[in-house]
Each structure stands twice: as structure tokens, then as C-alpha cells.
Design goal:
With 72 residues, the protein is an all-alpha fold. It has helices spanning 2-8, 13-21, 28-48, 50-53. The longest helix is centred in the middle third of the chain and has 21 residues, at 28-48.
């Protein structure tokens, strides 16, 4: 989960690679595979109408500007 968060916040791939090599994160390939798998599952659910018939709504917006404060 942390790897997907780092990927979504545009952490450089080299940082992810170092943390994965240290055993703190999964590899960048595994992150991409997880994102691809989740996307396929969600697309299949939408095609089957699961979201429509259960009266649940899901909204995704990929342009949030979150400023994570760091001490310098």
C-alpha cells in the first residue's frame, strides 16, 4: 500500500528502488502489477454493472494538489 502511495505522489523511481532493495517497499514492477490488477478488477465491476445496481458511487480524480509539509 505504501508503494502505491509513493507511486501516486510521484516519488522518483530511484527512491522506490532503493527502499524496495532495503526490503521496506515492494518493487516498482510489483507496484505496476498491483495498479494494473486493481484497474482491471474495477473495470470488470463497472462493465458488470455492480456499481450501478448496488446504488453506490465511486469517483476518481487524479489532479489533487496536496502539499505535504516537511521541515527543512
Amino acid at each position: 500500500l505504501l508503494g502505491i502511495f509513493f507511486h501516486s505522489t510521484s516519488i522518483p523511481q530511484k527512491v522506490i528502488d532503493v527502499l524496495a532493495h532495503a526490503g521496506l517497499l515492494i518493487s516498482i514492477t510489483s507496484i505496476h502489477n498491483a495498479i494494473h490488477s486493481m484497474s482491471k478488477e474495477i473495470a470488470a465491476n463497472i462493465k458488470q454493472g455492480i456499481c450501478i445496481w448496488s446504488l453506490k458511487v465511486s469517483v476518481a480524480y487524479d489532479n489533487f494538489d496536496i502539499n505535504f509539509k516537511t521541515s527543512e
